[in-house]
Specification:
Elements (H helix, E strand, L loop, with lengths): L2 E6 L4 H12 L3 E6 L7 H5 L16 H4 L10 H10 L8 E4 L2 E4 L3 H8 L15 H4 L8
Parallel strand pairs: 1-2
Antiparallel strand pairs: 1-3, 3-4
């Protein structure tokens, strides 16, 4: 099994569920705080690869949920600059195994990457914070 460096927002219920799935699948986690990590644009870009810029954003961020900011309006450079300045905009979690990196928790993608025991997933989509899936306002996103 893999040793996964896992950047989270401490206290996030969605990240807690994701960690639970990874651990129950036999992976070891090295958990780090996404909000206090000293990010720079070049390092952060490695997690996103060729994915569309709009997928880089945390959909639970209040300024995105309110429509004040629209992720499709950003180019790569602008998005990275914003995320370095305010890491709450980054989709969670960020994960790294060796030199391979991944942003977000798409089940199929994580399973194909490092393997998951899918029976440990449960009913709730682990990609989303529970406060987003219920439709209520996020708490301290």
């Amino acid at each position: 099994m893999a040793t996964v460096v896992f950047w989270e927002k401490p206290g996030c219920q969605g990240n807690a569920k994701q960690k639970e799935i990874l651990c129950s699948s036999g992976h070891t986690l090295e958990v780090r705080d996404l909000l206090t990590e000293p990010w720079d644009a070049a390092r952060l870009a490695l997690f996103f690869g060729e994915r569309p810029v709009a997928e880089w954003f945390n959909p639970a961020h209040p300024r995105i949920k309110s429509g004040e900011l629209t992720p499709v309006d950003f180019d790569r450079g602008e998005a990275l600059q914003l995320m370095v300045a305010e890491p709450l905009f980054i989709v969670r979690p960020l994960m790294q195994v060796g030199e391979e990196r991944l942003a977000g928790f798409d089940l199929a993608q994580v399973h194909n990457w490092i393997g998951l025991k899918l029976e440990s997933v449960g009913e709730r989509d682990p990609r989303n914070c529970p406060c987003v899936t219920r439709g209520s306002a996020p708490q301290q996103s």
